Amino acid sequence: MEPAMHRANSAIAAGVMLAESDNLVRPLPGLLDGLSRADCNRLRAIGREKALEAGQLVWSQGDTQAGIYLISEGRIRSYYAAPSGREVTLAYWFPGNFVGGPDIFGTGPHMWTSVAAERSRLTFMPGPALRRLALESPTIAVALLDALAFKARCYSAMAQMLGTRSVTERLHSLLIFLSHVYGVKRGGEIVVGMPFTHGDLANLIGSTRQWVTVQLARLQEEGVIRYVISILDLSTLGQGME
To answer: Which of 19-33, 51-65, 174-188 has the lowest mean pLDDT?
Structure first.
């Protein structure tokens, strides 16, 4: 298990979520970053590796929590499913992140579903064992609290944007987020290297795939973007977002 844990520890992780704050539009240090070798070894001792193919569930909404899953490879999508069947994507999480909050010690029902968006490898850490480690090591406890605080800020920002921003503003904000975190400058363009479908973007902003397709086509006609997704004029997307 050590190689996978080492990769998660050494990587700079980032998620994808709906946010407009510059404090959230940045790579996120992995859960294990900053921990001593001894604390990393303690976490390795309680962990069990799990491999998932694309589309396989980590858990379903309503399942009883049993612990957290540290992502070693791949991409995990967390989403809420309404009784109507409509889904709202909360975030995509990458290596170095964990999924399984907010009840990380495993005593309540999961509030949303998490699924592998691509082939992924995770390390499962049982809640009771994780609680014991948090009581024994203040550094581990603080690392868990910091990660939970970041997730809380992400979900709070998402709720604020869904409630106060138009769907067009949310799309523009998401494109700005992707450009800041996953964009690579090539000449006068910013090329977003992460592959996301129109459906992925729609789920993140609370819209439909058809609407996103129409809006991206319009932005392309206006010379703001070029598929896939190359941002030509970042300032235009930011107009009116203050």
So the answer is: 19-33
